[in-house]
Each structure stands twice: as structure tokens, then as C-alpha cells.
Specification:
Layout lengths: L8 E4 L6 E4 L1 H10 L9 H15 L2
Amino acid sequence: MAEAEFKDKTIKCVDCGTEFVFTARDQVFYAEKGFTNEPKRCKACRDARKTEKRNNTSK
């Protein structure tokens, strides 16, 4: 899939309310992986959730 098929989108993070850009390149990656949902969280909040999950499972 070509990036030209996609356009950058601005999305509001459900956790912190910050707006972030879902780039055309990221959309291509999501499509190639078969992901059907757009991200709901900004990178900082996604990273924080991953860290929190990792810490909770290692107890």
C-alpha cells in the first residue's frame, strides 16, 4: 500500500487529551499488520500503559 492513499490525521488521546498525528506512514504500517482500529492514545500514554502492564505482570 502506498502512503499516497493515506493522509495524516489528528487524533485526541483518550487518556491525556493531547492531540497527536496518526501519520500516513503509521497508517500504512497498521494496514499491513491488519489492524483495523486507529490508535486511541498518544505515544507517551501508550508507553506508560506498556510499562504499567509490564510492572503489574512481574509481581
